[in-house]
Amino acid sequence: MQNQDEDTNSPDHSVDSDTSDSDGEFDMLLLEFDTAVNLTSLKLNWAVGGNASSTADLSILAWNGTGSAALAGNTWSSILDSNGGRYDSVGNYNNVGLSYYTVNPTSIESTKWLVGVYNPVYGSGGDAGDDGFKLTSLKTSTSSTPPPGPAPVPVPGTAALILAGLLALRTRRSLKVRAK
Q1: Tell me, what CATH number does 40's domain have?
Q2: Are 25 and 15 in contact (CB under 8 A)?
Q3: Cα dist. 90→61, 80, 113, 160 in Å?
Q4: Which of 27, 100, 171, 178 has its Cα between 20 and 30 A from that of 87?
Q5: What's the total number of domains in the chain?
Q6: Left (φ > 0), alpha (ψ -120 to 50) or beta: where does 26 sit?
Q7: Full-model pTM
Q8: Which residue has the higher pLDDT, 111 or 170?
């Protein structure tokens, strides 16, 4: 992945709000899942935040499941549910480092997640501008019901099988008695 406004210098292929970009925008990743998941933690393998190395400030949003999840033609502010959009702010996280970092303390579940550099539009909790990161992995969970156990054995089929076995034993015994 490479942002359209990046060149060959660092931080290529990163999610950033680097003010040295041609547009200084706040980048976000749209993560989509087949079923609703609880985003529990994430791990970065590269981060930079202002004057700090190996940490970045992040914003995370979850689609609320109603209406269109489309982002095209919207501003970051207009996608917020509180502004008539379809995404809820899950939180802003300050100084996220390079190890697993726990997020989403209220266990919100969604099929669509936006993970990006801290954006002040979504509230306080970070320093805007000059942040960047590369996402390594995510941990998720679901609250779906566990798969059902083994299917019960049907009684009529079992009874018929036992009856057939008893008849076979009786026939065999009758044949032995006649043979003597």
Answers
A1: 2.60.120
A2: no
A3: 5, 11, 10, 58
A4: 100
A5: 1
A6: beta
A7: 0.73
A8: 111
In this structure, is residue 9 part of a structural domain? no
Asked if 82 and 122 count as a contact pair (C-beta separation under 8 A), the reply is: no
Residue 117's domain spans which residues? 15-141
List the structure tokens of 83. 């502004």
Please report, in angstroms and rounded to a whole number, the separation of the first and last CA atoms in the chain. 86
Query: Hey, which residues does 58 pair with through a beta bridge?
Result: 93, 117
With 0-12 / 13-18 / 19 or more C-beta atoms within 10 angstroms meaning exposed / middle / buried, residue 72 is exposed
pLDDT digits (tens, 9 = 90+) for 50-104: 667 789 999 999 999 988 888 888 888 889 888 888 999 999 999 999 999 999 9
- The counts of H helices and E strands in the chain are 1, 8
